[in-house]
Amino acid sequence: MPHDGDATAVPLLLSSAESDTTADAPRRNMYAFACATLASMTTILMGYNLALMSGAQLFIREDLGLTDAEVEVLTGSMNVFMLVSILVAGWAADLLGRRGTLMLANAFLMAGAIAMSLGGSYAELMAARFVTSVGAGFARVIAPVYNAEISPASSRGVLSSLLDIFINVGIMLSYVSNYAFAGMPVHLGWRVMFAAGAIPPVFLAAAVHFMPESPRWLAMRGRHGEACAVLMRTSDTQAEVELRLEEIKQAAGAPHPGGGGGAGAVWRKLLVQPSTSVRRILTCVFGLQFFQHAVGIEAILLYTPLVLKKAGMPSNGAVLVATIAVGVVKTFFILVGTLFSDRLGRRPLLLASTAGVAVTQTLLALILCVGGATSALSAAACLAAVLALVAAYSVGLGPVVPTYSTEIMPLQLRAQGTSLGTAVNRLTSGVVSMTFISLAGAVTVPGCFFLYGGVAVAGCAFMYVKLPETRGRSLENMEVLFAK
Predict the structure, then answer these.
(1) Whole-angstrom distance, CA of residue 371 vs CA of residue 373
(2) Is the distance from CB of 106 to CB of 135 less than 8 angstroms?
(3) pLDDT tens digit sequence for 64-91
């Protein structure tokens, strides 16, 4: 299947925009770029709140007297709590629209940040973490759906990958926040870290209000005039506007097995009576979303301080500076992957990235085995391996997985299908983040990274066998690819 996809992607690209060879095409797509940027910025707070615990846990543990088990659960609970909103996000997006759901996400993110800053006990922090998770779940599902639906095929890879860029901007800001407020009194510093996350959602919600609605959602609602107006502003050529609108109308009105409409029919086609192509699509989506976090990236993002201290890094200040370096490297290589996703294709980036993760996880494990716990050289080598691991991950697995998973879903199944895929993603992430300390106690920290490296090898094999290339295809033609 992968090789068939490579051979047929170019003709479909030409059929959808064959006259678009002018040099000013990127200028005509700036409106789509602005819309995708605003939608993706909602996920900044998701990244911020997920990674903030990396440094904040050092101070929360001291201030509130939490145990290792409580810190482990509090740190990883957000991924599990997100399952609630993730599983209803598709329904909400089809009911309220993509834009309305993103505004709702910002409201929950703001409320959760305020609640975390005011928490005075383990139970209160867990409740606040749940509120934050609702907003993060909505943002994580709907932002990639909106980006894929607003983007022309010629730049969909770049625009869809903006999501991961902004998640990592949030992660990097959380590391900066950890360092900037670490010098404050213990009972106050971590609260300010979380309170700072309550300000951006106010401005983001206001900006999202002025974005256009997804043309595909408008078409599903029979609002073809409004859909056409949005397409006029987000397509490369007039011919592409007409072609995209016609394909969207056909996809929105296409009959589905199980009869009837509404959410019930969608879930039947996804889980009860999927067609051959839908079954293949779900296999790819679930596999990608699982391997994206099963390779252990969450252990690096959340427990870098623990790993670096084990390798011999002496002080909290040095560790927090090192986490900022991790954030910078991650963001830079996500930009690299984003720029190349529409040039090299999704499949080569995913394969190279996963292979690189397998190698660097194994290298990190070997350094931790050999270096000793108090060696400055070991600490430097460990940091270098962590940065190489983050770079390998960020060039492919980070930005390309949400792009690929969203774009291959059929129109009428996209919101709920993306919800299911994201649920697998967050559940895997939660398992990794909530078990790392316990797993390290059972098999040692190097043993954890050997295990994650083995998972990455399995992921690389899965992607080589199962994933066709999708670069250049229109969203409405994805089922044709997976029907082969």
Answers:
(1) 7
(2) yes
(3) 888 878 887 888 788 788 888 888 888 8
